[in-house]
Design brief:
Rossmann fold, six-stranded mixed beta sheet, binds adenosine-5'-triphosphate
Amino acid sequence: MSLLEVHALQVAYGGVVAVRDVSLDVAPGQVTAVLGANGAGKTTTLLGISGLVRARAGEVLFDGQPLLGMSPTKIARLGIAHVPAGRGIFPGLSVQDNLRMGLYGAKGLGAEPGDVVEEVLEQFPILRERRAQPAGTMSGGQQQQLAIGRALVQRPRLLMLDEMSMGLSPRVVADLFVLVARLATEGMAIVMVEQFVGQALKIADQAVVIEQGRVVASGAPSELSAEDIGAAYLGGHGNAAAPLPGAPRDARQPVVMSLAGVDVRRLERKAAQLGVSPDELAQSLLEKALDR
Ligand code: ATP
């Protein structure tokens, strides 16, 4: 039984169609690797699922419930956590407060915030050790653990990880893959966008290769042909459509990120209006939300 069903998803940024036709099915406890060359539409697929970018057409069902048109906060509350590329942690906030930010917007978790944060800290000894330290003082691998930990605070049933390995050493990446595989054995559904194709295929139950906004191959890793794997790295698969018009990369908007459905781009705008830093605003929202 699928937990997440995506049918013929289409997402555009103005006139640029970034996702033309993406379908995938994810069951609980299953790891799905979403692969493809730069600009293939992987990130946009995740943003379309978590509601951070509005889909133009298609269907997304989570546990049978349609998600398209729903706010990112509502989607997060249903049990979908999205760890964006670049992690999006608040460097000036302590490790512990970054984890608490994972609860912001996700009220009604059925546990005291402190309990959930403690549960997550149990799983990440290094974060527990550094809980009072500003997050920005930690290494890249530790910050990635924090970004994942913050998603786990939501107690998601589906965890979406975008480029978790980016910029990290092979040893750190290997540890993160072990963590992801463990979360899946506990029943969590995982959708991961990865450029470490070989490693992702080792732990994935299925892979979906996207090229120019379309799925060009999908199935168990053992079913993928050499050509499919090539497309996962570089594109250029035989079935590919004509190249996308594609906005130049530097013309892109900063990618929105979500904290339990909080749109951080909005948070940054609000902070600028108020003349405070995003970290300061996050801290004050947190204090209010947790009634400290
Ligand atoms: P990468 O690994 O390079 O991020 P990706 O497969 O995740 O690649 P997307 O980031 O989803 O690809 O981008 C798909 C297409 O959409 C690209 O042509 C990209 O230039 C375009 N695009 C992405 N974000 C925006 C944006 N905010 N505005 C306009 N076009 C965008």
